[in-house]
Amino acid sequence: MTSVQRKFRIPPGPVDPVALGIDAETLATLQQLQSEHGDMVSMTKPNGRLAYFVNDPVEVRRILTRRHSKYNKGPGFERVKMLLGNGLIVSDGDVWRRSRRMIQPAFSRQNVHRLMKVMVECCDRRAVHWAELAAQGEVCNITSETSDFALELILITIFSDDYHTRIVTEGENPFAFLSRDSTRDLSVVMKVRHLRSLLLSIIEDRRAGGGADDFDFLSMYLQATDKDGQSFSDAELLDELMTLIVAGFETSANTLNWVWYLIARHPEVEAKLIAEARDHLPNVSALSADSLASMQYTQQVLEEALRLYPPVWLFTRRSHAEDELEHFDVPPDTDIYLSPFILHRTPHYWPDPERFDPERFRETDQSKNERPFFPFSLGPRRCLGEYFSFLEMKVHLGLLLPRFRMQAVDETQPQLELGINLRAAEDIHMKPMQR
Ligand code: HEM
Question: Whole-model pTM?
Fold first, then answer.
């Protein structure tokens, strides 16, 4: 412990330095620290920096909500910056505040409702493909299917017709590598550079008055102004578009991937989902924000999948001002680690935590609001796309599940890949059958 650290009240923790990254070893280390030292653990990193692992739900909430202005985004975000520049997810302070205010209106319920027709279109394309596979008795890679679905959806909701005329002109979607390539190495930098020049040319044409839908995200972002009436510069806009693409597809895609996997192993859940979908969405013209809102059981299944497999499984922050948590001090420059994955599986809050049980999220269960559940984070930096993603996932399940049964072809449980996002380490394959 350094002399500076000695004057603060520091929680208990190991004496030797602890290396933390955003990987599977880090999960094991944090779980071990928690079992040995409790819910507030301090440690020194190999570079001498103080770090806390906070696993007390009250303190987690405090850091993300009331005290959020004392913390910036933490370690691990440098890698994300390679892709997203200074976009909303990685920026801090005044830059973040200005962008968030400018972007927020694009995520109003009214605007998201206008995008539901794109969600239906993207499901239709999957249905055509799955029907072909089913007719030929072929197996489908549900991991790439959910990924392609979510990627296509976010790109069309951003670019509308430009997606078809400017982005997928040569067959292959130039953004597809984002879902296939988990490395963030030099080849990815080159591909990102290419994408940025493609996006820039679309932006230039839009600024020059070229077509498009007034309600796609790009139009909304182009119209956004700050309190001084300034709009985004081209560079800012590029960062925000890349942020929207990256934040907006892999998280929902991963969740849907796990949902298909879980449903195939829980026929009783599948039967209830289908009954609800048939009831509330007897045909596509019955689809509306209200009918989706009334699909309560589907909501529960999605929440339970997000409890077990929160796509953002580890949040990091760095204090830039002194803070006080429980009976401890947080000196400036302390790295903070918070993990939805660990809290969502802590038996004290979630009995029999490994069990998939959507009943935990029953609307009538009062205690559900007292349990730690924060897959979308909390507070002012909470996910902007939460409502969008629930609609997207409900439309996907509501339209596709009553038509297709996905039969598991492999009984082994997929390993977890714990990077910036939590994914299945191997793609999941299933056999589609028409109902
Ligand atoms: C299941 C789906 C999703 C999950 C679990 C999820 C989760 C999260 C989490 C945990 C954060 C905060 C990260 C942190 O503070 O370190 C976040 C931020 C964000 N998400 Fe999502 N997300 C999802 C879908 C989406 C979608 C579909 C969009 C866009 C259409 C989106 C856009 C954003 C944006 C723009 C931010 C940055 C907010 C800010 O910093 O002000 N997300 N998301």
Answer: 0.95
Do residues 325 and 62 make contact, with C-beta atoms less than 8 angstroms apart?
yes
To the nearest whole percent, how much of the chain has pLDDT over 90? Answer: 78
| Phi/psi of residue 77, nearest 5 degrees | -75, -15
CA dist., res. 154 & res. 163, Å (int): 10
Backbone angles phi and psi of 325, in degrees to 5: -125, 140
What is the full DSSP assignment across 33-90? HHHHH-SEEEEE-TTS-EEEEE--HHHHHHHHTTTGGGEEE-TTHHHHHHHHTT-TTT
CA-nearest residue for atom 7, ligand 1, is: 376
Please name which of 148, 97, 101 lies closest in space to residue 122, comparing C-alpha atoms: 148
**What number is the average pLDDT over the span 98-109?**
96
Segment 140-169 shows an average pLDDT of: 91
Pocket test for ligand 1, best of 109, 118, 218, 251 (most atoms within 8 A of CB): 251
Q: CA 16 to CA 1: how far, in whole Å?
A: 10
Delineate the domains of the chain, giving CATH numbers in brackets.
3-434 (1.10.630.10)
- Which residues have CB under 6 Å of ligand 1? 88-89, 100, 243-244, 247-248, 251-252, 255, 311-312, 315, 375-377, 381, 383-385, 388-389
pLDDT of amino acid 330: 96
Is residue 297 within 8 A of residue 316, CB to CB? The reply is: no
Q: What is the mean pLDDT of the chain?
A: 92
Could you tell me the distance, in angstroms and rounded to a whole number, from the CA of residue 171 to the centre of ligand 1?
29
Using an 8 Å Cβ cutoff, are 22 and 420 in contact?
A: yes
